Amino acid sequence: MNHQEIPPESNLTEVMEFVLLGFADIPHLQWLLFGLFLIIYIIILMSNGTIFLITKMDPALQSPMYFFLANFSFLEICYVSATLPRMLMNLGTQRRSISLVACATQMCFVLMFGATECFLLAVMAYDRYVAICNPLNYLLVMNHRVCTQLVTGSWTIGIPVQIGQTYQIFSLPFCGSKEINHFFCDIPPILKLACGDTFVNEVLVYIVVLFITVPFLLILGSYSKIISIILKLPSATSQAKAFSTCSSHLMVVVLFFGTGITAYLRPNTRSSEGTDKVLSLFYTILTPMFNPMIYSLRNKDVITALRKLLCK
User: Fold this and answer.
1) Which among 178, 28, 27 has a CA at the least distance from the CA of 98?
2) How far, in Å, CA of 209 to CA of 212, rounded?
């Protein structure tokens, strides 16, 4: 990552706001993008909201798996709401400025919700591990107190770290260009605008990578055990049923972690900025849109609950 030298005191202008360029490089598609992302946002709110609602209301969906799914759906609404409303406002008004405080707040919430999603996906993988590898003791191990503790830990574990990281980044002096070539305030494009030595902050970026890779490794460990148990099941029918309960979660894991890890581990060059925006679209917007479809279309219990809700 390139460093800017701090200019002399007389030439240093304190930056009080940034400009989120977003998709300004394709001006002829602004209203098309506005309509597209507005539809996506509505779909995310309605689909995740519906899953959250039916998992709370339907008596058949009161198992630990659906308790985690309800929290996951609520998280997706929070996660996408940290970026999409601002993007829609920028596309609709063409006023792309964002204050320093608003930018820091957005970054902090995106990082916290992203960390929560990583750990919640790991918790959901552990839930499937217990259900398949230790089915007789499943309800004993995954009792309500344990489930609540796991969800609470997922929501809170990243808060102090991400607040500290955001504070560290926005304590840097910013000078020169104030244009952020992204659709939300993310760490790499912000550090590009900082003056002086940002080495410590660039090292701290790997905290984000740590929050991605540790849960990902836990998920891999859970599913390696799950697959080994499934392959030992006596009948192909039993194997297919066990795989079907895990395949939806695996699809979400691959989509979210694959794009997230790629985005933060790729070399951050000017030529890669367009690719970074596309990858960010996947893990911040498209994944929350696909998740309800993946879970509902591949889950008979959810489909049955949806039918009951629609028939009322």
Assistant:
1) 178
2) 5
**pLDDT at residue 24 is higher than 90:** no
Contact residues for 103 (Cβ-Cβ < 8 A; gap 6+): 17, 18, 170, 180, 185, 190
> Alpha carbon 282 to chain centroid distance?
9
User: Rounded to an integer, what distance in angstroms lies between the CA atom of residue 160 and that of residue 202?
Assistant: 19
Task: Render pLDDT for 72-130 as a digit per residue (tens, 0 to 9).
Answer: 999 999 999 999 999 999 998 888 899 999 999 999 999 999 999 999 999 999 998 99
pLDDT per position as a tens digit, 199-237: 777 777 777 777 778 888 888 888 888 888 888 877 777
Cα angle: 246, vertex 248, 250; to 5 degrees: 70
Q: Which two tokens stand for residue 188?
A: 């790499």
**Structure tokens that stand for 203 in this block:** 């090292």
Rounded distance, CA 20 to CA 99, Å? 10
